[in-house]
Amino acid sequence: MTAALLPAWRGVRRLLAVRLDNLGDVLMTTPALAAVRQALPHAHVTLLASPAGAALQPHLPDVDEVAVFEAPWVQSACTAEQAGPATAALAARLAAGRFDAAIVFTVCTQSALPMATVLLLAGIPLRLAHCRENPYHLLSDWVRDRDTPGDGLRHEVQRQLDLVAAVGMAPPSAGWRGRPAAALRFVPQPGDGERLAARLRRAGVDPGAPYFVVHPGASAASRRYPAARFAQAAQAVAEAGGGHAIVVGGAGEADLVEAARPAAAPSTALVGGLSLGELAALIGGARVTLCNNSGPAHVAAALGAPVVVLYALTNPQHTPWLAPARVLSHEVPCRHCLRSVCPMGHHACLLGVPAGEVAAAAVQLMGAHPAAARREAGRPACKESR
């Protein structure tokens, strides 16, 4: 049973939550943010996030404000020349915010100490984080980091829930929009579904007809399943009654999206231009989504929408949490490499998964969850094909 909130934390009225990596990492932190809100219902909570994570601002129910920072100690656009001035400016900015407490959320391969130093310089008295080595005075509340990449490693969601539990913040107790209490949290915004429907109509797609989504991109090359195999899987899903294939990607992914379209089945490419809310509405209304271990997988998990994830075995912490999901990979001895580019050059953990297996997983999920999350995303149920 979780202990009561520690006395020093009971008076917190302004809290800074720090999560400086990707959008999916912020989503996997939302159950812990819900625990913070439950423990401190009257506190003003500010999330300090990367530009990618900050895109979630209108969809986060337990955050009052989002501030943006490109940290030089994580992968970002911050250059070596900018690092010193940017960090000094952040310390001054946080000092002006007069925060009572800060919680630094990190994966087990990141150090919380650079951010802890900034928090100390900003005069924030309570500072909570995981840390592998003794931080001494950099943290007021130190949780020893015992996670190492490998089998049995805690899921990222559980890791962050355990962090806030260390100061007495219990896991969320109430169910979330018809989902488990500890589910990821994403709030669709009014108009997201309508804007998506208008975009689909402009692309010649009936937004009320059944469809499935293919998202072939990922920020790291080591986590990308071949686009041609996505195309083969999409062809098979369409032939099995999945409906229209909608292949999506960012503004710079036109070639990737085109390569992932099925050869003969009806399909539509959406490249760039979708807001995060519109992408969520698209995923929430789909019969199934096929993607890599990337942000859309966690958006699907947050909506309770069925998703097939081609999961490179670089890090075991980030599978879809409490979601109708199939996670596909091929066992390799070099698993848990934590690399953005396959160090062996063979991509066997993904290339060992045939397209037919991807399609079979998608068809199975479609049968088990025919209308999952459509009401969640604020869209009408698609008409089933006869």
Compact summary:
Helix content is 34%, strand content 15%. With 386 residues, it is of the alpha/beta class. It has a six-stranded parallel beta sheet with strand order 3-2-1-4-5-6, with helices on both faces. The chain has a six-stranded parallel beta sheet with strand order 9-8-7-10-11-12, sandwiched between helices.
Walk across the major sheet and give the strand order: 3-2-1-4-5-6
Number of helices: 13
Helix and strand sequence:
HEHEHEHEHEEHHEHEHEHEHEEHH
CATH topology of the largest domain: Rossmann fold
Helical content (DSSP H or I, runs of 4+): 25-40%
- Count of folded domains: 2
Taking the sheet with the most strands, its summary is:
6 strands, parallel
- Summarize model confidence as the mean pLDDT: 90
Corresponding CATH superfamily of the largest domain: Glycogen Phosphorylase B
End-to-end distance: 52 Å
Query: What gross morphology would you assign?
Result: globular
CATH architecture assignment name of the largest domain: 3-Layer(aba) Sandwich
The CATH class of the largest domain, by name, is Alpha Beta
Given helix and strand content, the structural type is: alpha/beta
CA-atom Rg in angstroms: 21 Å
- Fraction of residues in β-strands: 15-25%
In total, the number of strands is 12
Low-pLDDT sequence parts: 372-386
Enzyme class: transferase
GO molecular function, one term: ADP-heptose-lipopolysaccharide heptosyltransferase activity
Pfam families: Glyco_transf_9
EC number: 2.4.-.-
